[in-house]
Design goal:
With 338 residues, this protein is an alpha+beta fold. The protein is built from eight helices and eleven strands. The chain has a single domain, classed as paralog of FGE (formylglycine-generating enzyme). The strands form four sheets. A four-stranded mixed sheet has the order 9-8-7-10.
Amino acid sequence: MTPSALAIRRTGPAWLCGALAVGAALAAPAPARSANGKAPRSADVALGSRARCAAYSGLPAGFRRDELAGMVWIEGGRFVPGSEDGYAEERPRAPVDVEGFWIDRTEVTNAQFAAFVEATGYVTLAERRGGSAVFRVPTAEELARTRHAWRYEPKASWRKPDASASARTPRPHEPVVHVAYEDALAYARWLGRELPSEAQWEFAARARGGDHALDGPPRDAKGRAAANTWQGDFPLVNRAEDGFASRAPVGCFPGNPLGLFDMIGNVWEWTRDPSPTSPDEAPVPGAPVARVIKGGSFLCAPTHCARFRASARQFQDEDLPTSHIGFRTVKSGPRPAR
């Protein structure tokens, strides 16, 4: 695929919110459990505020020594994914039984991905191509002319997410981006893990609760932003009321009741599920597979999307890395000891 094709290509209406999406109701986190069923080490729980996320190294305690480092056990159960109130593709599907599993407490960070690259010599798809898709705040004139705010930027990659020479170096505790589906899967397999199914992701995001309202992103009891999203007239004006105009370090906002952070906002997250196809839609030979992405991003705005919910979903070509898509990993049991 040529750079010019990468620059403009988009799946459905995804570009409207920088690829629209998803989330979960947020609340004070419950203590997570480590591999032995006990509360994890203090280094793993000191997240959920601006001060705590700023101090985080980006590497969970025991990373690479403990196969479950940085993960939370999710007890299995049954739920009905989807929503009656959202977009057409979210309409409730059949009840799903989810077996218990482990999931990363946070999105995979630059520090974690750097450890993977250092150990394996892995080169991402964006690096092999020589660039990736980057969101730029356009002028009103640019928006009127191009109808979007995305550009193919040579040299953009996880090492330099914003591509420009003046852009700051990505911080180790920020979520890694410019990772295609194959890059995320390679990292997960390196750790003996997988990418979550959409059902696993949504079940964990809901935290056995309901779905978020359609009228805007989550806010806490005092009306403060409880997720990293876009406040203002997208894509021209971001008031950054949540404290971030772009990606935030992981864990700057309160976790959900299961102790998972940034299940809404910050960056979208790959799942392993392919997007559904219409019965009369024939596959195109050689065309990239689109995967379900979840979680929303710092580009989601109420003026262009109402996907601030665990049930919302969007579809992304698996070979299209961008500056606002990351991931987290899962691992099958065993259940922690009581």
